[in-house]
C-alpha cells in the first residue's frame, strides 16, 4: 500500500486498529480521492451502520467537515489518537448529533462541526453494540 501523506498513514493505522479491536474488516480498496468517509460497517436490526474512523496525533475534537456533512456518509464517527504504533480510541458520536454541533474554522480554511473529545460517547458502548449485532454478546 502506498501512502500520499503522513496523515493518510495515521488514518490507516487507526482503521486497522479498529478492525483488530472489533473484528469489523476495514475497507482496503485504494481510491484516488480517499475512502469516501466509510471505513467499516455492520448490520444491526436489518440496517447497515457505516463507521468513519477519524485519527490525529493529538486530537482535541472530533471534526465533521461542513462540506462532508452535506453528502451521504457514515452514521458513526470514531475519534482515535495515534502516537507512533500506538492507537487510543477516545470515543464516538453519531453523524446526526455531529450535525447539531457548532461550526468553526480551526485555522485551515475548513469549517467543521466539532465536539470535544471529552464529550464523546464511551467506546465500550459502541463495542458492546457491535458485539451484540454480531451475536457475540
Structure explained in plain terms:
The protein is built from 4 helices and 7 strands; from the N terminus they run αβββαββαββα. The chain has helices at residues 6-22, 66-69, 95-99, 123-133; strands spanning 40-44, 47-56, 61-65, 76-83, 86-94, 103-105, 111-116. A hairpin with a 5-residue loop joins strand 6 and strand 7 (111-116). The chain is of the alpha+beta class and 137 residues long. The mean pLDDT is 89.
Tally the helices: what do you get? 4
What is the oligomeric state here? single chain
Beta-strand proportion: 25-35%
Poorly predicted runs: none
Question: Using DSSP, what is the number of strands?
Answer: 7
What structural category characterises the helix and strand content? alpha+beta
The radius of gyration computed from the alpha-carbon positions, rounded to a whole number of angstroms, is 14 Å
> Could you give the distance between the termini?
34 Å
Overall helicity:
25-40%
Mean model confidence by pLDDT:
89
